[in-house]
Amino acid sequence: MVSYFVKKNEINNLLNFIQQAFELFVIKEKGSNLYWTRFDPENSDEIIINRHRPAEPLKGFIFKSKEKILNNFNSEKTKPSAILGAKACDLQALKILDYVFLEGEFKDPFYKKTREETLLISGDCTSFKDVCFCLGIGVEPFPKENFDLNFSELNEGFIITVGSQKGDKILAKSGIPINKVTAEQMEESEQRKKEFLDKLQASICRMALPPKDSFKLGVQSNFKSELWTNFALTCVECGGCNTVCPTCHCFFLVDQNAEDKYQRLKVWDSCLLKRFAKVAGGANPRKHLSARLRNRFVKKFDFFPEILGLYACTGCGRCIETCPGDIDLREILKEACKSR
Amino acid sequence: MDNPYKTIEAEVIDITEETAAIKTFIFKPKEEFSFRTGQFVELAIPGFGEAPFTPSSNPSEKEYIGITIMNTGRVTKKLHELRLKDKVGIRGPYGKGYPLGEFKGKEVLIVGGGVGLAPLRSLLYALFNEIASFKKIILKYGAKTPKDIVYKKEIEEWSRSSEKVDVKITVDVGDETWKGRVGLVTTLLDNLEVDIKNSVAIVCGPPIMMKFATFKLINIGYAPQDIYLSMEKNMSCGIGKCGHCRMGKYYVCKDGPVFTYDKLKDLPEVWD
Ligand code: SF4
Ligand code: FES
């Protein structure tokens, strides 16, 4: 992959250029969290490109929380989205979503279209949250794939790495001055990454997570364990963990009526909710909350590694942060992987 | 790009009341629509919702498709209100059906419970289409009461149709009109006159019935890979995306709905 050095003061020009053809979303800080927000050229100073992942997952830009899949009567043409500041954990999650929606006999044309037209500009992480444990599950905080452009921060500017032809074109057409990355800049970048990795590593070490290769067996061999019942005690079945998860892909189909017309919608669903697996006749393989909590772990740490060789968890820690019942995925993994 | 969620319009051209809670509808799709026996379809009431069904009609019938529906939930209740000439949406077919090729030259034992006879009726028709290829076709069917027996007329016809076909029915609880057998469908598997080593068994019915029928078949000597089960899970998308129908490492909608028991026997939550 080729990289260029771009000065800080050129970034606004790049964003303004991107804005012409895309609906641009950037990260801003509100309170103690980071959020995606629409780019406003008048108000571009507090844009965050690096730092850590925002509160909401990236998936919502591509796998929409609610999408018309039939009878989309007022299909006004909208600009594709461009996302600035996506983080490695969210890009890793796209591997799961791509597999689900783009592989196999049937492809999801809605996901495919959005996935192809969305411009993904990522950024190396330069800070982390207490709940971040990416390294503990084998995800590096510096994007290596699944981006069009990636930003690595330096004192004076950014090293922009080109990850696709689309990214290459945008950068070239924007007309902003791009420079060869000098040896010193490379050095500075490596140094920053190393310093950050050390800090992140120390934080994750303190979590005392079991080795990542033991998750699958741990979850598998604890199927009948009491641990699910114990952890489910405080779950209030809000489904928040599913919503904020960058890899959760389940949805349901529902009809919506408007006068004499109707639309069929595809809407995010949550496997923690009681009706998720219930059949019309009334049978429900996961009547108990503990079985539903367990199911979430089985899907992420047993099913996906089995069929795809990947955990459907990227260490973003959002479920930990969001859970009103204080259920901590890391604690469940620890319990499941305890040697007995 | 093709939209896999798109439905084809189909018109109701016939309705048979099988029992108080079960009706068979014949639909005529506007476009070509065919299925292999054991595959399922999604049936939609426009503006109301969709539900999965395994057709009960003969798969060689290209003009129409028959679906037997028990009134048990929101969508099926609405489907029961359908009248002649009403329109529905249909999409599919999905999943893998019964591998008829594997049944050739064998004694095919079919075990059905309640409305679970619906997919099996389609299978029976498919077997009858090529009856010379099969050694025997044995149907063991159980319903709750005589009033819950579906396809009464057809069942009579089947038993008389060929030397190769043997039909036995039982009800869990009889009534004053019932002169036949009383007992669970599994009792029809006692003293089976079948060459088990050259036989396959196909089971469809409520989960509890499938469980006990399967255990019984194993007990009397069927190998797990010779027992075919039609699994009912909460299918929504039908195309392996929505996540609702997952059972262990399988998606029932694409890896099933028909599974041999060897694939399921070590999975949790199979019978629930
Ligand atoms: S976020 Fe917590 S309380 Fe909400 S469904 Fe998930 S585990 Fe349960
Ligand atoms: S029905 Fe949606 S994944 Fe099987």
Q: What distinguishing features does this structure have?
A:
heterodimer; A: 340 residues; eight-stranded mixed sheet; B: 272 residues; alpha/beta; Elongation Factor Tu (Ef-tu), domain 3; Rossmann fold; 2 domains; seven-stranded mixed sheet; six-stranded antiparallel sheet; binds FE2/S2 (inorganic) cluster
Please explain how this structure is put together.
The complex is a heterodimer of chains A (340) and B (272). Chain A has 340 residues and is of the alpha/beta class. Chain A has two domains: 2-207, no CATH class; 212-338, no CATH class. Helices cover 36% and strands 19% of the residues of chain A. Chain A has eleven helices and eleven strands. In chain A, the strands form two sheets. Chain A has an eight-stranded mixed beta sheet with strand order 3-2-5-6-7-8-1-9, sandwiched between helices. In chain A, strands 4-11-10 form a three-stranded antiparallel beta sheet, with no helix packed on it. In chain A, strand 2 and strand 3 form a beta hairpin. In chain A, helix 6 crosses helix 9 and helix 6 packs across helix 11. Chain A is globular and about 65 Å long. In chain A, 40% of the residues are buried. Chain B is of the alpha/beta class and 272 residues long. Chain B folds into two domains: 8-94, Elongation Factor Tu (Ef-tu), domain 3, CATH 2.40.30.10; 100-230, Nucleotide-binding domain of ferredoxin-NADP reductase (FNR) module (Rossmann fold, 3-Layer(aba) Sandwich), CATH 3.40.50.80. Chain B has seven helices and 15 strands. Chain B has helices spanning 74-80, 100-103, 117-129, 152-161, 207-219, 252-255, 261-264, and strands spanning 8-17, 22-29, 40-45, 49-53, 65-70, 87-94, 107-113, 136-143, 165-171, 181-182, 199-204, 227-230, 246-247, 250-251, 258-260. In chain B, the strands form three sheets. A seven-stranded mixed beta sheet of chain B has the order 10-9-8-7-11-12-15, with helices on both faces. Chain B has a six-stranded antiparallel beta sheet with strand order 4-3-6-1-2-5, with helices on one face. A two-stranded antiparallel ribbon of chain B has the order 13-14. Chain A binds chain B through residues 69-70, 100-101, 104-109, 112-113, 223, 249-255, 257, 261-262, 264, 266, 269, 271, 276-287, 291, 299, 303, 306-307, and chain B through 1-7, 44, 46-51, 70, 72-76, 206-207, 232-234, 236-237, 239-244, 246-249, 254, 268-269, 272.
